[in-house]
Specification:
With 314 residues, this protein is of the alpha/beta class. The chain is 50% helix and 12% strand. The chain is built from 14 helices and nine strands. The termini are far apart.
Amino acid sequence: MVGLSWADYPDRFREETHMKVGFIGLGNMGLPMATSLHAAGHALAVWNRTEAKAAPLKDQGARVARSPAEAARGADVVFSMLADDGAVSSAVFGQDGLLAGLAPGAVHVSSSTISVALSEKLAEAHASAGQRYIAAPVFGRPAAAASKQLWVVAAGPKQDVERCRPLLEALGRGLTVLGENAPAASVVKLSGNFLIASMMEALAEAFALTRKSGIEPKAFLDVFQSVFARSPIFEGYAKLIAEEKYEPAGFKLRLGLKDVELALGAARAAEVPMPLASLVRDQFLGGVAQGHGDLDWSALGALVAERAGLERGR
C-alpha cells in the first residue's frame, strides 16, 4: 500500500467524524497507540524507521509512508511517539521531516517524552509554519497502551486540544488538559516519571533490606499489597522487583536515565533543587554503565540487591 493517497481510502474514512491521521514511531508504545486510532475508525498513515514494524497495521489497511513528511502530507493530525529528543528532532526537522509535510492548520501531537526545551522549540517551529502543536504524553506501559488504559496529559491552544480530543480519548482511560502552554505537558510527564523512578528506588531498597534480613520477597510483597498498594503502577513495579522480572523491558533503564536527566534539566531551568532526582539519576547511570541499559527500568531492584550482596533468584 506504499504510495497510496488519502483519496484511496473508503468513503467512510472521509466522514466528518473520522480524521486523516499520521503516526510517526511504531515502537513498544507507538504501535498499540496507532492501532487504537485505526480501530476507532480513523484513516491512518504510518511511518517507522524500520518499516517492518508497520506490517501489522499495513495488514489492517493502514497506509505505510516512506518518510515522516509523507505520513504528514494531507493529514489533519499527526502523532509522534519516539524514544528521545534526537529521534524527535530528526523526524520533525530532518530531510523529509514532519515539518515539511504538515499542512498549514494541521496539528502535530507530540506524545514522546521529551525535554521542555524541545517542546518549546516544536511549538515555535510549527507556529512559524502556520501549523498547530500540542503536547500529549501518556502514562502507562505497553500493555496499558494495547488495552487502551493509558492516561493522557495534554496541553496546547484550547481549540486544538478540543479538535484532537476524540483521538486522545481513543488512546486510554482518561485525559487531563493542563492549559494552553504546550510545554507544560512535558513538565508534568517528566515530573510523573521522576515519581515513578523514585518509587522504584524506594521499592528496591525495601526489598533488598527485607531479603538480606532473611524475609522471603513474596512475604514482603504480600505485606506491600495489603498495606501500601493503592496504585496499579506502584503495585506492578513492586511485583516486577519481587519476582526479578526485568525482561522483556516495557520501558528500558536507559530511557529512565534519559527521563530523569530531562527532569533535572527542567529543575535547573526553574531553579528547583531535586536531590533525590540526582540520586536516582546516578542509580540509572550506574545500571547503564554496568551493561543493564536494555533491561526494564525496574531493574533498579537488581542493582540495589547486588550492592547488598544478594544473588539473583535467591
